[in-house]
Give the backbone structure.
Amino acid sequence: MKFDPDAEFVARVGKGDRAAAQALMVRHLPKMLSLARRMLSDQAEAEDCVQEAFLRLWTHGARWKPGRARFETWLYRVTLNQCYDRLRRKPATALDVAAEVPDPAPGADAALQGAAVAAEVEAALGELPERQRAAIVLCHYQERGNIEAAEMMGVSVEALESLLARGRRTLRTRLSHLREG
Amino acid sequence: MNDERKQRAEDAAFADSALRALPSVPVPAALEARILADFDAIAAQLRRGALSRLLRRWQNLIWPGAPLWKPASVLALSLIIGLTAGVLVPSTTLSGEQTVSSPSYDTAEALEMSGEL
């Protein structure tokens, strides 16, 4: 069984230890928030989603047993499931994101161009099917390994590789003008 | 087959560079505060739950299977009876004359006895 750096903190959270709760939050919140932000393309939604995931942790964390899966895997799976639920509840907003893309006018400075590229990438990412998006964000944005990402998504490594291949191809096709430019 | 593999590697490299263009997501302090406030509320709930579980365990020892109001009302009734009796029933032992005398050790008889010892 692998050493889980979170196991002790989770046990303490189950006993109502606020310092342990804060330590877990500081350790995982930034990556959870960026995952939710990239999945949902909406900062407020992402914050609500992550808050909900932590609420699950505070409520059910005491029941988590070390040994079965790493705590981080469980926490990310909870976050992803929250994202999927929210995506199914709301209509796609990818077009809204695309509408926010600034016009790369001639003479625009590098920062503006960078923001324009980022907005285009975000829009293209937002148009991917949710599982392909999750696979791409976990492996290319958060730099997780395939095995770890597959565990977080609750799919086999082969299924993850297939999702990744399709997601990357779609992303490259949609953003081909960036490569040419 | 090799072309397909090459294509996939290029797709992966492109995805890497494209996602690198995305800015990092800052964590607002207000979100941290909200998450910790949730923890405080849940922890308080758990503490209340622990207290009620302890009370229930005691109650099961005293009167197994009964609802909490039964032992509570028996305790309250016995307290009322005890207090009423204490207030209304007159004391017979200490009223009027002193019935129990406290021994005195400095009388002449006592001093004589201690001398004999």
Observations:
- The mean pLDDT of chain B is 79.
- Chain B touches chain A through 28 residues (CB under 8 Å).
- Helices of chain B lie at 2-20, 29-62, 69-88, 108-116.
